[in-house]
Structures are given as C-alpha cells and as structure tokens.
Amino acid sequence: MIPDLKQFEVWFITGSQHLYGEETLRQVAEHSQKIADTFDKSKHIPVRVIYKPVVKTPDEIYNTLADANITKNCIGIIAWMHTFSPAKMWINALKALHKPMLQLHTQFNRDIPWSSIDMDFMNLNQSAHGDREFGFMVSRMRLNRKVVTGHWENEQVQQKINIWCRAAAAWYDWQGAKFVRFGDNMRQVAVTDGDKVEAQLKFGYEVNTHGIGDLVAVINASTTKEIDDMINVYETSYTLVDSLKKEGNQRQSLIEAAKIEVGLAKFLKEGNYKGYTDTFEDLHGMVQLPGIPSQRMMATGYGFGGEGDWKVSALVRAMKVMASGIPGGNSFMEDYTYHFEPNNEMVLGSHMLEICPSIANAKPRCEVHPLGIGGKADPVRLVFNVAAGKGLNASIIDMGNRFRLLVNEVEAVEATNDLPKLPVARVLWKPLPDMNTGCTAWILAGGAHHTGYSQNLTSEYFEDFAAIAGIELVLINEDTKLYNFKKELQWGEVYYQLNKS
Ligand code: MN
C-alpha cells in the first residue's frame, strides 16, 4: 500500500550552451553523468536518479522539461548549471514545468587545484556563477524550488536531496488520489471541514462521500473464512485480553471488529482509495466504531481522519509515503489532555481509538472497552505506549484564502505512569520550545486538534512539501519567539493576499 520509492525517478538535468565547444561540453556531460549515477546508487537517495543529456538551447530545455511533465513516475527534476546557461533560454520551459524542482548548487571538483588551475578549469567549473544566473530566473519567475548547496559527494547534501525526493514522492502520490469520507463532517465542527474543491485544485486529490450504508453492505458480505483469517492475524500479531480469546465472553466483539476490517479493506481496495474518514455520529448499521480496523488500515499505509477530517487523512497518507522505509512511524493524532505540573508540562496525545500501531513501542495489547460516546457496542482497539524521542505534529488547515501547514516539533517522553482506566493508545510529548509558547503559537496559528504525528520526519520534509504544494508553512520549534511568531502570521496574511499564483 505504501509505494516502493524506487519505482519513482527524478531527472538530473544539466544546463549549458554551445559557446563552450565540443570538448568542454563532452566533459560537462561526463561529469553530469557521474553525479547522476552516484545519486542513483546512493544509499541516502530513495528514488532512481536519471541522467538526461546536457541541454544547450531553448528547444532542448523545453523538450526535456516537457518530457518530465508527461513522464509517468517522474516525480521531479534536479537542475544544475555546471557551466553558464543563459537563463532567458529557460523561460518558456520553466513556465511549462509543473513538476517539483530542486536546484543543486554544486561543483564537480570539490577543491580548487591550486597548482594546476588554469583558464580551461575555470571554463569548466562555472556553477558558482552559472547557478546564480539560473537562480535569478527561477526567483524572478517566483517559482518555488529547493536549493541545495554543497559538494555532491557530501553526505549532508545527499540527505537534503533525499528529503526533497520523499516530499516529491508524497506530492506525486497525491495527484489523482482518492480519499473517501464515510458520512459527512462531525456536526458543527469547523476545523475538520474546508473547501474540497480548492483542495482538489491545490493538492490534486479528490474527496468524495459515501453513505455509511455503502460500507456496511460490503462489511455484511464478509465470509466466515475471511473473518476467521482476520482473527488469526489478530491472534498472532497482538496480545489478546482473556475476554477476546476463543472462549472469552466478549469474543463476539472481536468477530465484529474482524468483519468490519474485512469489509473496510475490501471497500478501500476496490475503490482504489488512499485514505478515508469516518465519524461516530454516522455509524448506521455498524455494530461498533472501527477501532482496530482503522488502526491497522493506517499501519498498512492508508490515511485516516476521525470525525470527517479529510485534510488530516490526506496528510497522514502523505507522511507515510514520505517516510517509506524509514524506521519509526506516523499516525493520526489528537491533542487530548494537558499535564500542567510546573517544570514538567506535557500533552497527552491520543484519540478515541484510532492511533496507528506503527508508533507502538512494544507488541500492542488487543482490548475491548466501552467508548462512552456514539451509542454503539464496545469497540475493540489496540492499546500501547509510544517511545520517547524527537517527534512532531503537523496539521493542515483551511484559512479561507489559503491552506496552512503547521508543524510543531516536540519531544516525546516515556510514559512513567500506568493509565489503567484509559485503555487507548497514547503518547506523551513536550512541545518545543516549551509548553506555553508551543501551545500559544499553535492556537494563534489556528492549528487543529487533529494532527499527523511523526517519529521519523523532520520539519524539513514539511518545508519541502509545502514549497512543492505552494502553500504556507508555519513552523513552531526551539527558535520560536511569540512576538516574532505573531509578526510572521501577520506578514503571511499580506503575502498570501498578494501571491495568488
Ligand atoms: Mn477527534
């Protein structure tokens, strides 16, 4: 369900011009090929990197970028000006480009060869000014791109390229993606709602609703064999409480949960969906709110949002694609309850049920308890704690004239207390820079209570993703000062009124 990133390619495109003559252009091509091959084989870069012949004329540039636009599985381009490539030649091609771009500001030779440097060397190693000429044009055209500076063999340079590739892969995954809402938004809730038409224009994914009855029909068509097989998976993967075991008095609840999961998985697969939402206010015909089924759908790579929150469902999906193959997990999350103990303030994050076991610190327990909301039978859920360490919460909100991606870096802390009467998956974290500043900033920015929680993505992923999407990114981290933060929000208001592109 989470795509293998090696099926994606980025094109390595080197700009030059005919002025240099055959011999220099031959060397440009050779160097360019070497860099592309190194990236292609690099353990830091998760996608294929494809060398493209050096472009030297407006036609060559246009044709190469136009090919990138229409080539399936090409998720973006890396542009590098080894020599000088007059940037007016790039205008029409850049106007037409609609795939993400990274401008690599590197040089083939790491060091200046002090004793042998001559004009031939200078003619060849010109990215210091070639990349500036190109950079001017991209900035003059107000095009977003990531600029990565440094020698191409440097590990940090390749890591930065890695992050951008993953953001580009998640963006690619969104184009034409389908998310399904089972039922509508939770009644009267504001932040989970938003403009789905604008989202499709801006983000490329569509969100459509199915009445819960459409799902219930598929759930009810589950066969005994399918349900038994699912229960087998539960029994081998998790520690079941006694009441859910074979002779347990709540075994029927487990059977119902398995039946829901069989139907849900089938519905999502047949509809080619990449994520979904549900709401406890609309469960007609369902015996219990999907707990373990939603948890496990997320673990296989589906986006999920509670209460009809389609924006967070799509975001969780994007986070899972960005993090493909990296240790650690990503989950739907909700800021639930605060601990205001002086000098030890923290947030308890959870949801009614639906936290992804990809962030569990140990084999989850499978339990069944009353929900106290929604008026349905007791739902089965996976219960676990989450490891300490760096993490972040991300939220996409609809500000009316734009989408805002908000990120708060956090420090997850080890749960030292048992929570015997809170049988849900949960995580404790301390927001950066501190509880008061972090939460105040989040509130001021209008961040939702629903987020995507990540253990393995840094804010740079979201910076790159927001730039590709052309939306606002607001970051709350150790450097956040409230006075400056408020100004940043005000400046953003002006910027997004002026920048309609
Ligand atoms: Mn919620």
Describe this structure in words.
- There is one protein chain.
- It contains 15 helices and 19 strands.
- The protein is elongated.
- The chain has a six-stranded antiparallel β-barrel.
- The model has no long low-confidence stretch (mean pLDDT 96).
- With 501 residues, it is of the alpha/beta class.
- The chain is 38% helix and 21% strand.
- Bound molecules: manganese (II) ion.
- Manganese (II) ion is lined by residues 306-307, 334, 351, 450.
Brief overview:
The chain has 501 residues and is of the alpha/beta class. The chain is built from 15 helices and 19 strands.
Give the helix/strand layout.
Blueprint: E1 9-14, H1 22-41, E2 48-51, H2 58-70, E3 74-80, H3 91-96, E4 101-105, H4 119-124, H5 127-140, E5 146-149, H6 155-174, E6 178-182, H7 196-203, E7 206-210, H8 212-220, H9 224-237, E8 239-240, H10 251-270, E9 275-278, H11 292-299, E10 303-306, H12 310-322, E11 330-339, E12 346-350, E13 365-368, E14 380-383, E15 389-398, E16 403-413, E17 426-431, H13 435-444, E18 450-454, H14 459-469, E19 472-476, H15 482-498
Bound molecules: manganese (II) ion.
Residues 306-307, 334, 351, 450 line the site of manganese (II) ion.
